[in-house]
Amino acid sequence: MSRIEQLLARLSLALLWLLTAAVSLTAGKAIGVEVLRSASIPEALIDPLIWAGSLLDLGIGLWLLSGRALRWCCTLQLVVIVGYSLLLSLMAPAFWLHPFGPLSKNVPILVLIWLLMRHHDKAAALA
Asked: What value does the mean pLDDT of the chain take?
């Protein structure tokens, strides 16, 4: 993976996280509320959980834009995506079959993050 490819991968992932943060608090908030309610999450926790998830996504997006400590950022992304996927699989397993792929898209995203981390590590070892 060339430096340009690494930059494009990092910027596309940053865009994904930043858009997810924004959508979670706007157009997609009703979906999040519905999923949390269907999982019997207490009403008082729903807004704080949505805000926490959105802020986490925002933080990851901004971290990617900074380009700093990329290995740690990639590791956090992997953990968060696997965690989100497991939780959503338990709360709304039908999302695996959704035509827009809210869960199935996570598989290629995980691969892209892993490739970015792997190539970043190789570049750091050569430096």
From this structure: 95
d(CA 69, CA 45): 32
Tokens coding 76: 């956090």
Task: Quote the CA–CA distance of 20 and 62 in Å, as a whole number.
Answer: 12
Instruction: Give yes or no for a contact between 54 and 21, defined as CB atoms under 8 angstroms apart.
Output: yes
- Euclidean distance between CA atoms 65 and 114, whole angstroms: 17
CA distance 24 to 46: 12
Query: What is the amino acid identity at position 64?
Result: L
- Rounded-to-integer distance, Cα 61 and Cα 13, Å: 7
The string of pLDDT tens digits covering residues 6-43 is 999 999 999 999 999 999 999 999 999 999 999 999 99
- Give me the half-sphere count of Cα atoms (radius 13 Å) on the Cβ side of residue 38: 14
**In this structure, what token pair is assigned to residue 47?**
């807004």
CB 117 within 8 A of CB 81: no
Between CA 118 and CA 104 the distance in angstroms is 22
Amino acid at 1: M
